[in-house]
Write a sequence for this structure.
């Protein structure tokens, strides 16, 4: 093995015998352009709606749900496709996300969510991944279209304007904190803190700890 | 002979009545013949003023003064309660769901909204700017009382 690597290295280091310097540099440049173009084209292909809805997992679950929402049909006809919200637009972030997506290929091959039941079972976990991602990047994919600088709150309803002024412009919250479940149905939210008014987990934990402490003192 | 005359008269009056009805009876249905599809009426807009409306009688469930398009209310989640629940109103500044909604059918108060009061749209609805199809001459109880009082004074 080591001998093979050594031989390869010496071959690479040796100057070219048959090809001119021009052919090598120009050829290398052209091949580089072709490779780069092909790579990016192939990657863009995996960003299309046709690609995403090529699998029944997406087509019958999340894509079917998207169709009734404002991100699919609306008055002005501007719409979002899967990758607009779920894939970062910046190149490095996009590559990172695409590498993460190899997990999704794994899931596809082993049928992790191949039935509706399996999907519903897994839905909360999958949703939490997306919420965590959007929370971490300050709802970047939302803001690619919905810029807070261009947001004219006088054109919004009084309720929306007030909420955006209090939470968005102050930086206290990011889009996904309030706007969960706008493009797809929500999973079971009963365990999500500050959602559905079931109290938040931290206060439940506090109460449990308090009761346990009381019990210990009694014993 | 007489019988024929009576039946003729009956037929004639029926025809006349039918013709009269066709011209003069106005219905809520548009004039398009039954077998054809007429043009669809424009969709009325939902009132989205965020201004609370007066209840016509005390027991009336308050009207929703904003849009509720695509609000998910099911076993998994209740979009309304993300603002109107007890815990959420500090942030949302929305009116809290009435305490009666915490009461089960034995009048016992639970920790949160009871399942029987969970589906908001069973009672609470939005209003649209649609023109009423029939005139509504409802008067509220204050008007009735005033009317009675004025009658008593008159006597």
């Amino acid at each position: 093995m080591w001998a093979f690597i050594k031989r390869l290295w010496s071959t690479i280091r040796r100057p070219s015998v048959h090809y001119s310097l021009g052919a090598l540099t120009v050829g290398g440049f052209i091949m580089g352009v072709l490779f780069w173009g092909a790579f990016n084209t192939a990657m863009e292909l995996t960003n299309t709606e046709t690609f995403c809805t090529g699998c029944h997992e997406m087509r019958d679950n999340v894509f079917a749900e998207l169709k009734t929402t404002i991100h699919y049909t609306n008055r002005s006809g501007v719409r979002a496709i899967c990758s607009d919200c779920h894939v970062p637009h910046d190149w490095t972030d996009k590559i990172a996300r695409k590498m993460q997506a190899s997990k999704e290929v794994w899931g596809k091959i082993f049928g992790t969510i191949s039935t509706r039941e399996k999907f519903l079972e897994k839905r909360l976990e999958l949703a939490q991944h997306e919420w965590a991602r959007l929370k971490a990047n300050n709802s970047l994919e939302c803001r690619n279209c919905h810029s807070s600088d261009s947001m004219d709150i006088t054109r919004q309803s009084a309720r929306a304007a007030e909420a955006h002024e209090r939470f968005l412009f102050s930086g206290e919250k990011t889009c996904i904190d309030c706007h969960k479940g706008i493009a797809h149905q929500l999973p079971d939210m009963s365990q999500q803190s500050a959602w559905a008014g079931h109290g938040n987990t931290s206060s439940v934990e506090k109460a449990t700890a308090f009761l346990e402490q009381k019990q210990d003192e009694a014993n | 002979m007489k019988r024929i005359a009576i039946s003729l008269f009956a037929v004639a009056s029926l025809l006349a009545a039918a013709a009269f009805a066709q011209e003069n009876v106005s219905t809520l249905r548009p004039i398009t013949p039954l077998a054809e599809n007429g043009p669809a009426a424009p969709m009325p807009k939902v009132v989205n003023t965020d201004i609370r409306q007066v209840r016509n009688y005390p027991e009336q469930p308050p009207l929703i003064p904003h849009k509720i398009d695509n609000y998910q209310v099911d076993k998994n989640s209740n979009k309304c309660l993300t603002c109107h629940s007890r815990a959420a109103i500090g942030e949302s500044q929305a009116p809290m769901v009435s305490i009666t909604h915490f009461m089960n059918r034995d009048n016992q108060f639970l920790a949160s909204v009871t399942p029987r009061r969970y589906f908001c749209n069973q009672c609470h609805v939005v209003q649209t700017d649609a023109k009423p199809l029939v005139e509504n001459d409802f008067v509220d109880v204050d008007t009735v009382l005033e009317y009675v009082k004025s009658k008593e004074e008159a006597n």
